[in-house]
Amino acid sequence: MRSMKGEVVLNILAEKAWEMYRDNEVISKINPEMLAQAEYIQGDGNPGSLRVFKLGPVVDAAISNYVKESTEKIEKVEMGQSVTYRVIGGDLRRMYDPYRVTFTFIPVEGKENEMCLAEWKAEFEPLTPENASTIEGKRCCSRIPQVV
């Protein structure tokens, strides 16, 4: 299984970052150029829920031939800490199986009331050799969480 990961320090509490990430309306407003829309199409964010992410024009321009939309099923939730999605539809699903992403929000030691570390990790298996080179060549996605 292949993987990618990234992290960024945010100047907000981990709990606040968690709330913002889980709220479709808020996350869609943070940087609509990168993430145009998020919507729970089934459920409320607990395991088994389905969420659609529609990428914005900045990301679309960078990887327009690859990913525009992703339907993800929530597999695991550790309240206030992390959420794991498995892609079940959209462009990524046609290229990788599985494609699983975990987002984690960790308070920064000594600055728990000010900052948190936002981490993400994607684990995936390309369906074809061409898709293996596509993800390696399109690591621009690794910068997406830095705008949150």
TrEMBL record:
GO molecular function, one term: protein phosphatase inhibitor activity
One Pfam family cited in the UniProt record for this chain: Bet_v_1
InterPro entries registered for this protein in UniProt: Bet_v_I/MLP (IPR000916), Plant_def-hormone_signal (IPR050279), START-like_dom_sf (IPR023393)
All residue ranges annotated as the Bet v I/Major latex protein domain in the record: 3-142
Superkingdom, taxonomy of origin: Eukaryota
Gene Ontology cellular-component annotations: cytoplasm; nucleus
The family this protein is said to belong to: Belongs to the BetVI family.
UniProt protein name: Bet v I/Major latex protein domain-containing protein
Gene Ontology BP annotations: abscisic acid-activated signaling pathway; defense response
CDD domains: Bet_v1-like
Listed Gene3D superfamilies: 3.30.530.20
